[in-house]
Amino acid sequence: RYDEAIETLNQAIALNANHVNAHNWLHLVYLEQGRYQDGNEQAERVNQIDPLYPAGIGNLAFIYVLFGEPERIDALVERSLPYLQGDSRTYVEGTRAFSRSAQLKEAEAVLLTEAMPPGTRPYAGAGAYFSLLGLGEYERALPYVEGRASQMLALVRLGREEEALQLSRRALVAGQGVFETIQVLAELQRWDDVIAFVEERFASPDALAQAHVTQGFGADELGHLTSAYRRTAQDAKANEALAAFRRALEWQREAGVDNAAYQWSWAHLSMLEGNPDAALEHLEASIARGYLEDNDFYRHWVVFQPLQGDPRLDSLILRMNDRRNEQRALL
Fold this sequence. Notes:
The chain is mainly alpha-helical.
């Protein structure tokens, strides 16, 4: 009932233009709809009204990451920290730690998070987890998302497949883990299971896209679905999924999205469309924005296997390896 929420919040703002909570809630509703430019306007307004409002700082930082502008987060955080204490300060410190994972400073994201009391890490912990995932430090990553759906990504890369799938089942009961499960099944190349899982839950590829595209970090689940249909000789369904994949990414582009995961999805799409040159361009853009994969690159992402041995991709993988080794040495 987003339209009703927007109407109510705008009425509150009409009565009090500086109602910080109303602006912040409106920001959150716009994000749920994928209206990122509108959400950004509200987040900026929240920070203008109250530069020390912790939730406002965190929400604006998320927008900066989404738009590929994580360097703007430092000034946002540093100008508020001297005036904050207690939980508010801890929350903003967590925002800073989270942002480091999008600034090619994975080690700093982890070390800043580890310096925080364990009970105060939920926001920072996600940044530390995905930083460690990119660095191939799977065992070290697990505690940061204990019991959460994203943990299954580290579990499956540790070879703990059954644990990952058990976690998937628990998460799904709680209404979580749909997209992590698709990623895990694709990495395991269980294509029939990918299809069965998606078709049980979504009426069409577009319905799958609608459920996830508003998160703003690409739409790889549609690429995995396309691959699953192709591997099982269901060409008409594969074409439908591929078209939905392109529409999802074009929609995100129009919404202002430009981050590492989004660029990676464009590379994924380009390979499926038979355009390896475009795929390499997007891979380069993604890696420049901080995307990292471990040494099992081709096993985790079989879609890029046709490029194996291409010196252009070898160079990009070497760049990832060098940065990964540099960051691991700092831990």
